[in-house]
Structures are given as structure tokens and as C-alpha cells.
Amino acid sequence: MQVWRQSGMKPWPPPQEEELVDLAAILGFHGMLNQVQYHQAFVENADMKDTAGGFSVHARPEELKTFGDEDSVNSTNVEESLQRVKDNDPKLKELNLNNIKTISIDTLKEFAEALKTNTSLEILSLCNTRASDKVAKAFAEALRSNKTLKSLSLESNYISGTGILNLIEATNENQTLIELHVANQRPQLLGVQREAKIAELLKENKTIVKLGIFLESRNVQVKVHEILERNYDEVRKDRMAVSNGTKED
What we know:
It is a single chain. The protein has 2 domains: 53 residues, no CATH class; 171 residues, Alpha-Beta Horseshoe (Leucine-rich repeat, LRR (right-handed beta-alpha superhelix)), CATH 3.80.10.10. It has a 5-stranded parallel sheet with strand order 1-2-3-4-5, with no helix packed on it. It contains 8 helices and 5 strands, in the order H-H-H-E-H-E-H-E-H-E-H-E-H. The two termini are 38 Å apart. The longest helix has 27 residues. Strand 2, helix 5 and strand 3 form a beta-alpha-beta unit.
């Protein structure tokens, strides 16, 4: 796509990917970004011209992905993965243990303990692993020490409102986590007081731009959305400052 100026003049260059993403943030559309767009723009900070997803100049669909149900088999070796986290394996950037219901509570807590000193792992998924409040508490303690993890998923487990509050409060310690997913717990309802507390805690957080959680209160939903939008805008400004060489250390 080319935008032409007056006759005889050279065309304007097509808009760049980052410019379109930034415009979406300014207009309040950041919630419409998919995982591919977000990860490439902020985690990888990569050139998005020839990759799937994103606000591309030429419209094209994102490649269709298939996902198994919650009972699908995850063949990841738990013991081996735990050892790699403990050993701080520099090649282990992402670990998916979703749907492995045979992991004991003690083993999940070992992962949390190992995370305290791990400086390599960036994405950890533990959805549908029967994690409880004890596990949430262990990971909350880990988040207070770990400064490398960017995304933590604990959806579809047995974490109560208290456990979720512990996790969110812990993210304020180092201000490094970008995504936290804790939706679809049993029980799912948090209650008005806990939801209000979540919004209060998030006001102090400057890094989370994606929060997977079920909130019943419309008022809290709006507050949380505004906070995530604020954080997203700050990330955008920081990225632009780095690009322009004006960001202060």
C-alpha cells in the first residue's frame, strides 16, 4: 500500500508495524492485540514485517492454531524440566506443563522454589495442574525474588481469591512480570472486597499489561482495564525512547 502526495511527488512511505501498534494503544484498542502481536512488539521487540499476526500493511490471516482440550496429553518430562529450572538452563526460556494433573503439590512448590534463583525462564504455564493456594503462595514468594519471568499462567486450578491476591501483590515487588493468567479457578467468584483489593494493588503495578482473571464487578473491570491501558502506554513510550536513544538508565 502506498499513500501518494500531490502529483509529481514521491509517495509517502507505508506506515510501519510499530507505528500502527502505537496508534492502537493511543486509541485504546490495545485489548484487541493478539498474543502474536503483543509478544513480537514487547517481548521479542522483533521486526514484524514478515511474521504472522500484527497490523500488517497487507491484510493477511494469522495461521490457524489448534489446541487440545484440558484432558489432552502433555508429554513434557516433569522431573527433567524441574532439574533444568534448578540448574538455570540458559536454553530453557519457556516451559509448558499444562494439563499434567499428576504433578504433586510438593513438586509444584519445588518449581516455585527453583524459580527464585532462575535467571533464564521467561514463560511458565501451569494451567489445569490442580494447583492450590499453597502453590500460589509458593509462586508469590518466588515472584518477589525472580526478575526474569515475564509470563505466568495458573489458570483452571483451585486457587482462591486469597491466593490470587498474594500473586498480584507479589508482582509489585520487582515490577518485572508482564502477563499473569489466573482465570477459571474453582471457586471462580472472588467477592466484591477481593476484587476491589485487586484493583487497588494493580494501581501500584507498572508492568503488567495482560491479566487473565474473572471479575464480576463492572466498576472493577473498568478500573483494571484503565490500569492495564496505562501500563501498556508506558511500555510503548519506553520502547520509543529506547529506539530514539533517549531512555535514561
